[in-house]
Amino acid sequence: MTNGPEDHKRILYGRRRGHKLRPGQQELVNNLLPHLLVSLPDEGMMNPADQFEIEPDTRTANDSPGNAFWLEVGFGGGEHLAAQAEANPDVSIFGCEPFENGVASLLAHIENKGLRNVRIHNDDARDLIAALPEASIDRAFLLFPDPWPKSRHAKRRFVSAENLTSLARVLTDDAEFRVATDHVSYCRWALSQLLKHPDFSWQAECASDWRVRSADWPPTRYEQKALDQGRKPVYFKFRRKMRESN
């Protein structure tokens, strides 16, 4: 996916706002969010490292030197992203989420944990992906996305041939792409789309590889909600296949 006139024709489905933000949340959105927003270029590609510039004399243990870049598409309440950022201070993480209440939730985690290695795109993840250079993301996450269960809404799902091709472009060779869902229909859809895509390979060798969340995969509130309601999530790990050398 490249920048250009066609990009402006995308439609972003889903809610932008929920309940009114509490005063503390609104303060974070007003004062902290502007410092963490990704700056997309008007044209061409951006340099991911430029989004995480930190003055050498202010670098702390929580600062990321930008050795690796990860991307979470639709971070929800931000629990997973914040936990990954805290556990991997040497990784710079982009998070995409258009839902204002989810952004406010992540901002609270960032402030409470003193995280310095997170940047936020509070809009369509496809726009950020389009602006990223080829082979610039070392790991990507898509956790409990809106399943859009009605058949006529299937085209709204993030997992599609077009979006997977765009994501594959920005993933480094052998980069991991993690997908989690508790919705049977979305599970089948995502697995079908990924298995037939030429740039991805499934890493599962036994049932526990996709039925059990690995230790380095922090939980989310949506996962807990699914478990509380008796649904069993699945945890897929795919790899970006090696590019063919010219």
CATH class: Alpha Beta
Number of strand elements: 7
Stated plainly, the CATH topology is called: Rossmann fold
CATH architecture classification: 3-Layer(aba) Sandwich
The CATH homologous superfamily corresponds to Vaccinia Virus protein VP39
Beta content: 15-25%
**Count of distinct structural domains:** 1
Q: Average pLDDT, to the nearest integer? A: 86
Poorly predicted regions: 1-8, 54-66
Class by SSE composition = alpha/beta
Helical segment count: 9
Radius of gyration: 18 Å
What is the element string, with H for helices and E for strands?
A: HHEHEHEHEHEHEHHE
Largest pleated sheet: 7 strands, mixed
Task: Give the structure's gist in a few sentences.
The chain is an alpha/beta fold and 246 residues long. The protein has a single domain (5-38, 66-240), classed as Vaccinia Virus protein VP39 (Rossmann fold), CATH 3.40.50.
